[in-house]
Write a structure and sequence with these properties.
Hect, E3 ligase catalytic domain fold; Resolv_N; three-stranded antiparallel β-sheet; 299 residues; 2 domains; DNA strand exchange activity; 8 helices; Rossmann fold
Length: 299
């Protein structure tokens, strides 16, 4: 079993499997359950991996595996992968029955065709869902809502309801609990905001390097938002991050369908300008960007 929405909740799957077994006089001796897993990859599916390991070891105390439906092996992008795990069971002499399917898993041409179609549909469901989720997240970005990640030094995550009414600040590690609530970025404490502005002015107008700015902050005993010493990198992130000029930028990196995380080209980023209260003026932000670009080109 694995978790999906509504009818695919582990509780509903378990009830259906128990009813199926009771109606046929089947005794359930063990349950393999991957709760809260998407099923896109075998990695992280500890229960499924344990099932396969038990079957291959030949030490099982059962001769039948009950599965809720074909998609519960996983919504793999390669439909043959779920077929392979069923084959491992059958090769070891362990039958597989599907409790919520309208066909008998008897090895007939019809059942083979239907399973193939359903496996392909399971993978396609994940692809379509990924596209829909991406589009929905993009719309939220354009409306100025934050999609994860820490606020950063000088900023705070603020929770609002569906009508835009402020409900309060979210501390580090806290998340919204109501689906219709949203998170926006707001200015943090005045001393942090002033310090961010000083960092920009020191870099652009006074010619201090990122390293020199970090050293100065550390000498003054000022910690980062994580309570750590400043480094050239943390100063650099403040100087290049567009949230400090009030812009909401998303999709710098992709991790779709649990595949390899990739850095996207800037033209793929989703950007909404002036949706947050800016910490620094756009002119100053762009000046800092020009200095950084000039430094890179001269290296």
């Amino acid at each position: 079993m694995s978790t999906d929405h509504q009818k695919y909740s582990t509780e509903n799957q378990s009830d259906a499997i128990n009813q199926y077994a009771e109606a046929r006089g089947i005794e359930i001796v063990r349950t393999y359950e991957d709760a809260g897993k998407s099923g896109l990859k075998i990695e992280g599916r500890d229960a499924l991996r344990q099932l396969i390991e038990d079957v291959q070891s030949g030490s099982t105390d059962f001769t039948l595996v009950l599965v809720y439906d074909v998609s519960r092996w996983g919504r793999f992008q390669d439909a043959d992968e779920s077929a392979y795990y069923e084959y491992i069971c059958r090769r070891a002499g362990i039958a597989v029955e599907y409790c919520a399917e309208q066909f008998d898993n008897d090895g007939s041409p019809i059942s083979t065709i239907v399973k193939g179609v359903k496996r392909a549909m399971a993978g396609e469901y994940s692809r379509e869902l990924s596209t829909k989720v991406f589009a929905g997240q993009g719309r939220l970005i354009e409306k100025g809502y934050r999609q994860g990640g820490p606020a950063g030094f000088g900023l705070r995550r603020t929770l609002i309801d569906e009508h835009g009414v402020i409900k309060g600040l979210l501390e580090r590690g806290e998340h919204k609990s109501i689906q219709t609530d949203r998170v926006i970025l707001t200015l943090g404490p005045a001393e942090e905001v002033d310090l961010v502005r000083c960092i920009y002015r020191a870099f652009v107008h006074q010619g201090y390097s990122e390293r020199e700015i970090a050293d100065d902050l550390n000498q003054r005993g000022v910690p980062t938002d994580l309570g750590r010493p400043w480094t050239r990198g943390t100063v650099h992130q403040i100087l290049i991050n567009e949230k400090y000029v009030g812009d909401n930028v998303w999709n710098r990196r992709s991790f779709k369908l649990k595949k390899k995380r990739v850095a996207n080209e800037p033209e793929m980023w989703i950007r909404a300008q002036d949706v947050f209260q800016a910490v620094v003026e756009r002119e100053l932000f762009e000046a800092a960007r020009r200095v950084i670009c000039s430094q890179r080109s001269s290296q």
